[in-house]
């Protein structure tokens, strides 16, 4: 890869200057000479030289890769021009997944309470987690995707209680999770809610004993139909009741109690409770004590999260698994009392949870360090994301103000079908294309923005074939596929006929692998999404280029040799867009 090779050469040269630094190489601005460049202003203080002088000295010391035609010091930058033939050959090189690396990465996402239908707030979690898992796998990591089922939580208990309390019977006319969700909302709107707590507690205890698993599973299976419609993938289901039965919580507490930072105060407000002092690992806390087990013996959710994390990273053993019977994911396994023991022993974990859970996630990392495994604490990553608005409105499940994912998918498909009928009335498979476009619009809207920024999902914007949308990228792919479909077979390219237009498109293609690796390293899919938008824009600029009012870059009618070069670039672009979209869980229609 061009950029990484340049970065390695610069690193070697800087070490000769006494600086063990790795600088990032980026595309050079279009009004500056060269294709790539590196800024050197940050080195001026350490080397006590002006940036331009540093650029000149660095150029003299660099052992340039053979594909570099020239290094150019310019305005405190050192820029690089790539040899045109090498650039084009690299752009035409078939791309594939990176070589496998050791060390399992466990990605946990979705983890929706099994009490009602998925709502629009869950979309971002699923899209982020599923996309990141795909990106990590392509980048060479061994990836395991986990979905956590909180079947002993209050939300599940309230839904099951409501179904019984109101004597509700499912008639099969709506999805079962929607039916169950209406019971949950009805309970929270019931004026007698407070007087019903005893009955809810009874259901809660039954869930903890594992007695109502099939009732919960019925809701889960309905939810999984939605997860499948979103094109999300899972390897493992872990039920909280199985964690309790396997005794993982007790094992985790035993490990923690060996630390001097975990103890039972004899007096004060924490008297009799098991607390963790997180101050060595989370500085600046007003109250550094966190309760793991209350004085009455009940474990907090902090303790449960820690026990689960310990199992993920191999500190605890003993959770059994078996195949999970379902119509959506044939290879899916689930925790179950009668299964075979399995421990993932992940070197890294990614927990996709909204930003409001940042504090508990920090405690999980602190607990790993307290257990004597700071290396695992370093590998525990929280992919925190902000909330999702729908057409400017905040969602609330308990108040019944949420909009379900199923409704969003149906509405997006309806609108996409209308757009396709207007733009391409002769489309051979309108409904199928509408499903692809709708899925692309929804998933792309959830991942194109940096996770820590709030999203306001609006149908009209997300479904547009122009702008920073999934359909825009899908349409760029379909346009490229249309050219290739008409081309037939072709021969060898003539690199000598390349124009600046081919050079510019090739440079855009070169950044795909860099974008994948950066998205994997930073653990955020928005890097890849933004790259696909940039690549689509470069392709549209190439496709629509004009000189003297005439097309400047005809592909099928170009002279022999140049035609082959252009077709090769179009094929590379089509394959890159298709691969990039697939890494975001988005289909690439051939006709739109």
UniProtKB/TrEMBL annotation:
UniProt subcellular location: Cytoplasm
Pfam families on file: Arg_tRNA_synt_N, DALR_1, tRNA-synt_1d
GO MF annotation terms: arginine-tRNA ligase activity
Keyword set includes Metal-binding: no
The protein's enzyme class: ligase
Domain DALR anticodon binding: 473-592
Chief place of localization: cytoplasm
Entry keywords, A to Z: Aminoacyl-tRNA synthetase, ATP-binding, Cytoplasm, Ligase, Nucleotide-binding, Protein biosynthesis
E.C. numbers: 6.1.1.19
Motif 'HIGH' region, residue range(s) on this chain: 112-122
Domain Arginyl tRNA synthetase N-terminal: 2-82
Keyword Hydrolase: no
Chemical reaction(s) catalysed: tRNA(Arg) + L-arginine + ATP = L-arginyl-tRNA(Arg) + AMP + diphosphate
InterPro entries: aa-tRNA-synth_I_CS (IPR001412), Arg-tRNA-ligase (IPR001278), Arg-tRNA-synth_N (IPR005148), Arg-tRNA-synth_N_sf (IPR036695), ArgRS_core (IPR035684), DALR_anticod-bd (IPR008909), Rossmann-like_a/b/a_fold (IPR014729), tRNAsynth_Ia_anticodon-bd (IPR009080)
Family as reported in the entry's similarity comment: Belongs to the class-I aminoacyl-tRNA synthetase family.
Assembly and oligomerization: Monomer.
HAMAP family attached to this UniProt entry: Arg_tRNA_synth
Protein name: Arginine--tRNA ligase
Species, as recorded: Thermus tengchongensis
Upper taxonomic lineage: Bacteria, Thermotogati, Deinococcota, Deinococci, Thermales
């Amino acid at each position: 890869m061009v950029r990484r090779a340049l970065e390695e050469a610069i690193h070697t040269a800087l070490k000769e200057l006494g600086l063990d630094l790795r600088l990032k190489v980026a595309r050079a601005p279009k009004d500056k000479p060269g294709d790539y460049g590196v800024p050197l202003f940050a080195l001026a203080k350490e080397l006590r030289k002006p940036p331009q002088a540093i650029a000149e000295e660095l150029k003299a010391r660099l052992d340039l890769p053979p594909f570099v035609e020239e290094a150019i010091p310019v305005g405190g930058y050192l820029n690089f021009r790539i040899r045109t033939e090498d650039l084009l050959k690299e752009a035409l090189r078939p791309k594939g997944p990176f070589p496998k690396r050791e060390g399992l990465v466990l990605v946990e996402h979705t983890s929706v309470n099994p009490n009602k239908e998925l709502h629009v707030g869950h979309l971002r979690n699923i899209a982020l987690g599923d996309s990141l898992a795909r990106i990590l796998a392509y980048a060479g990591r061994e990836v395991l995707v986990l979905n956590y089922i909180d079947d002993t939580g209050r939300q599940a208990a309230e839904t099951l209680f409501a179904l019984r309390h109101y004597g509700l019977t499912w008639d099969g006319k709506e999805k079962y999770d929607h039916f169950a969700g209406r019971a949950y909302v009805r309970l929270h709107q019931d004026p007698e809610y407070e007087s019903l707590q005893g009955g809810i507690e009874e259901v809660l205890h039954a869930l903890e004993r594992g007695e109502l698993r099939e009732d919960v599973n019925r809701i889960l299976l309905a939810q999984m139909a939605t997860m499948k419609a979103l094109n999300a993938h899972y390897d493992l289901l872990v039920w909280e009741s199985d964690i309790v039965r396997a005794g993982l919580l007790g094992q985790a507490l035993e490990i923690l109690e060996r630390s001097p930072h975990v103890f039972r105060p004899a007096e004060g407000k924490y008297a009799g409770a098991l607390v963790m002092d997180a101050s060595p690992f989370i500085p600046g806390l007003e109250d550094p004590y966190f309760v793991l087990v209350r004085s009455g013996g009940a474990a907090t959710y902090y303790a449960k999260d820690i026990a689960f994390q310990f199992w993920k990273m191999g500190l605890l053993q003993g959770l059994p698994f078996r195949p999970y019977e379902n119509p959506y994911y044939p290879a899916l396994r689930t925790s179950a009392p009668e299964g075979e023991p399995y421990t993932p022993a992940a070197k890294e974990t990614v927990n996709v949870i909204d930003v409001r859970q940042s504090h508990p996630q920090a405690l999980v990392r602190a607990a790993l360090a307290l257990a004597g495994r700071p290396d695992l604490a370093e590998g525990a990553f929280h992919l925190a994301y902000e909330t999702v608005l729908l057409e400017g409105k905040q969602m609330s499940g308990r108040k019944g103000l949420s909009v379900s994912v199923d409704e969003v998918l149906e509405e997006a498909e309806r609108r996409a079908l209308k757009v396709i009928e207007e733009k391409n009335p002769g489309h051979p498979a309108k409904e199928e294309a509408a499903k692809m476009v709708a899925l692309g619009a929804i998933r792309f809207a959830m991942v194109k923005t940096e996770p820590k920024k709030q999203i306001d999902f609006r149908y009209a914007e997300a479904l547009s074939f122009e702008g920073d949308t999934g359909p825009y990228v899908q349409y760029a792919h379909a346009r490229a596929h249309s050219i290739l479909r008409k081309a037939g077979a072709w021969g060898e390219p003539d690199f000598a006929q390349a124009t600046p237009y081919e050079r510019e498109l090739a440079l855009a293609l070169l950044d795909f692998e860099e974008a994948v690796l950066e998205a994997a390293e930073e653990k955020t899919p928005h890097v890849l999404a933004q790259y696909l938008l940039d690549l689509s824009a470069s392709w549209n600029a190439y496709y629509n280029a004009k000189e003297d009012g005439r097309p400047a870059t005809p592909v099928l009618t170009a002279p022999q040799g140049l035609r082959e070069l252009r077709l090769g670039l179009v094929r590379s672009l089509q394959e890159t867009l298709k691969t990039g979209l697939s890494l975001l869980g988005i289909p690439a229609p051939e006709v739109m």
